[in-house]
Amino acid sequence: MFKQFLSKLPRKSSKSESADSAGSDSGNSAVISGNGIQRTISGNAVPGRTNVVKRMSSAVFPASVVAGIEPLLSFKDVSNPEKQNLFVSKLNLCCVVFDFNDPNKNSVEKDLKRQTLIELVDFVASGSARFTEPAIAAICKMCAVNLFRVFPPNYRFSSSGGETEDEEPVFDPSWSHLQIVYDLLLRFINSSSLDSKVAKKYVDHSFILRLLDLLDSDDPRERDCLKTILHRVYGKFMVHRPFIRKAVSNIFYRFVFETERHNGIAELLEIFGSVISGFALPLKEEHKTFLCRVLIPLHKPKSLGVYLQQLTYCVTQFIEKDPKLACTMINGLLKYWPIINPQKEVMFLGELEEILEAMNMVEFQKIMVLLFRRIGCCLNSSHFQVAERALFLWNNEHIVSLIAHNRQVILPLIFAALERNTQNHWNQSVLNLTLNVRKMFSEMDDELVLACQGKFEEEEGKLVSAAEKRRVMWERLEKAASVQPVTRNTAVLVTPTTTSVSC
Q1: Do 31 and 58 lie in a common domain?
Q2: Which pLDDT does position 77 carry in this prediction?
Q3: Domain tally for the chain?
């Protein structure tokens, strides 16, 4: 196997080898052989390294990527001035990628690379690493080679349009290496000795876009690492912040309006939850546009339940920053309100409670009529979970306070729904909750309840009278039709009637 590797490696001529040896410093010379590169210090070979190790290094890792020093040396075996060269050399060594679909293939080489990656992480964690421009370039290159890849379509997309709560996660077989590379990248970004002005040339727009693409990974462990790294990149590189916001918005646009398939929406929203909390006041128009054009349409996809918690947090962060945005948010919820999806309707009601809890009286009064017309429809839902969740709004003290101050407007909007529940609803839990809410209104304003009761009975009487008139009319038509049978060429006049659709 090693011979196969050796046959693919570029070989230098004997002249170049002798020239390299002659051109080295007399104090620190490098002896180059056909088996690999061994670093010598003060003319003496470093002890503890056998020819087998040197052959393995040359066979697995091409000599052209080694930065003038044997990469399998330990950091303890070289002097402090040489550690930086060894650091770059080890990074270049780790640019070789192995196939992990077959666990028995290249097992020795995989273990060797893993040990080298661990050494790199420990070296960076110790604080000894100096992030010069060559070191930054080498780290970014190594991370790009190992991390950036295209996901297989059959793993990437599920029939439901993205990973759902009920699906089993898919774990990447190369995670034993990927995890250490992510750890190294995170420590690199977090390092206080990293100069962002130099690093931004390598952690550039292309690098960030490819990191964002990786968030579509099926492996939840990888998405969790990326979430942390991208958040640190956003904090470290201020110059890239507008670009990151725009790139993430584009991912959301494609998800909502084109594919409805992406595994990393929850992680992206979690990053933005932290970003939104750091927005300065007053909010820029760009940020308000993000709420209207991105966060509100994210309520449309079927897989809302996967990322609802993170989405709700982002929304409430916006409302805490600017309470006037609560009306905008509720109008958006009403626009995308689900009609034939009870599970999603329950989610909307839960998010609605979070918004109302952060809402002040002035903003509530602007939206309460439209809002409680919709809540009235939910109270009468034949799906008991929807009706039950709508009635649970009265368990929130802040919401009850808002309703109590505006009961003259709100109670007439929902009284008919409450009465129909007490008379007809099949679920006992919904019936009990409805009676509690009705009792609550009676304690607030008994006269208003009686007035609404009278108006309800009057309207019910009109409906009964109209139904009776329709019944009599149909009976007359049926009788007339039975007396005069229709002949073959008799014209039939059909009068179009308007139909009203109720909730």
Answers
A1: yes
A2: 80
A3: 3
Same structural domain for residues 184 and 221?
A: yes
Q: How far is CA 217 from CA 147, 170, 178, 224, in A?
A: 11, 9, 12, 10
User: What range does the domain containing 66 cover?
Assistant: 1-84
The CATH code of the domain that includes 192 is: 1.25.10.10
Mean pLDDT is lowest, of 67-71, 93-97, 166-170, 457-461, for 67-71
Q: For residue 222, name the pLDDT band (cuts at 50, 70, 90).
A: very high
Examine the domain organization and report whether 380 and 327 are in the same domain.
Answer: yes
Averaged pLDDT, 121-132:
89
Show which of 23, 58, 84 is a domain's final residue.
84
- Are residues 267 and 378 both part of a single domain? no
Residue 485 to residue 480: CA distance in whole angstroms: 9
Residue 173: per-residue pLDDT: 87
- Rounded Cα distance between 240 and 207, Å, is 11
Predicted pLDDT of residue 67:
43
Long-range pairs of 463-470 with CB within 8 A, sequence gap ≥ 24: none
- Do 156 and 287 sit in the same domain of this protein? yes
Question: Is residue 235 located within the same domain as residue 279?
Answer: yes
Res 341: pLDDT: 93
Task: Say whether both 354 and 431 belong to one domain.
Answer: yes
Q: Are residues 269 and 338 in the same domain?
A: no
Work out whether the CA dihedral 313, 325, 336, 242 comes out positive or negative: negative
Q: In degrees rounded to 5, what are phi and psi of residue 136? A: -60, -45
The reported pLDDT for the residue numbered 21 is: 36
Q: Which of 26, 55, 84 is the last residue of a domain?
A: 84
Cα(376)–Cα(380) distance, rounded to whole angstroms? 7
Q: What does the block give as tokens for 336? A: 């995308």
Q: What is the DSSP string of 407-426?
A: HHHHHHHHHHHHHHHHHH-S
pTM: 0.78
- Please report which residue ranges of 191-219 form alpha helices under DSSP H: 196-199, 205-214
Residue 388 domain flag: yes
DSSP 316: H
484 in a structural domain:
no
- CA angle (254 as vertex; 250, 260 as ends), nearest 5: 140
User: 486 pLDDT band (50/70/90 cuts)?
Assistant: low
Eight-state DSSP code of residue 75: G
Tell me the three state secondary structure of residue 478.
helix
Prior bond to 242 cis, omega within 30? no
Dist. CA 493–CA 300, nearest whole Å = 44
**Rounded distance, CA 348 to CA 243, Å?**
31
Residue 407 is assigned to a structural domain of this protein:
yes
* Sequence-ordered strand ranges (E) for 46-132: none
Any long-range contacts for 421-425 (C-beta under 8 Å, 24+ apart)? Answer: 421/379, 421/380, 421/387, 425/380, 425/387
**Chain Cα centroid distance, residue 369:** 33
Is 486 within a domain?
no
